[in-house]
Amino acid sequence: MKHLVILPLLISAISATTAAVALDKARASQISQTPVQQSAVIEEADNFYKSDKVTMQKVTFKNQYNMQVAGNLFIPKTLNQNAKNPAIIVGHPMGAVKEQSANLYAQKLADQGFVTLSLDLSFWGESEGQPRNVVSPDIYAEDFSAAVDFLGTRPFVDKNRIGVLGICGSGSFVISAAKIDPRMKAIATVSMYDMGAASRNGLRHSTTLEQRKKAIAEAAEQRYAQFTGGEIKYIGGTVHELNENSTAIEREFYDFYRTPRGEHTPKGSSPKLTTHPTLTSNVKFMNFYPFDDIETISPRPMLFITGDNAHSREFSEDAYKRAAEPKDLYIVPSAGHVDLYDRVNLIPWDKLQSFFNQHLSR
Question: Are 94 and 168 in contact (CB under 8 A)?
Answer without folding.
Answer: yes
